[in-house]
Amino acid sequence: MIENLKSLYFDQLRDLYSAETQMIEALPKMMAQASHPDLKDAFSDHLEETRGQRSRLEKICARHGIQPAGETCDAMKGLVKEAEKHGNETLPGSVRDAVLIAAANRVEHYEIAGYGTAKCYADVLGFDEDVKLLDETLEQEGAADKKLTKIATGGLFHDGVNEAALA
């Protein structure tokens, strides 16, 4: 039962833990479906980051004497299900890569919102160490989002996945 900001904060931590756990399961599948080497590398790198993010949540929960498991992040479940559906309905190649990037960007935006909210609650509650750990994750999620967007749109001297998907 959520009775106050502290119990809401703990609920949010469990929700984020569930989300990260689901992504640890989903990222290898997304990596296998990707064809662009930069996208495969981005998913591989973010898988390692995601494991670290989940570990930070475990540290925060241990500090407060709560179990991180026990909540199911239905939003992440839906995002993963949608990514799988669209990935399976798209032929391999640049269009599927564009689908995977779009799905991954949605996940990153969801996680940025979730971690931003949790960080705000931790700050109000005076959990300064939690704020530092949550901020570290927020920075990683933002960087992952930017990296995916760069792969989609390309850089100064090359076209991105989205451009290749036009063909």
UniProtKB/TrEMBL annotation:
Superkingdom of origin: Bacteria
A UniProt-annotated Pfam family: DUF892
SUPFAM superfamilies named in the record: Ferritin-like
Residue stretches in coiled coil: none
Bilayer-crossing regions: none
The protein's name: Ferritin-like metal-binding protein YciE
Taxonomic source organism: Haloferula luteola
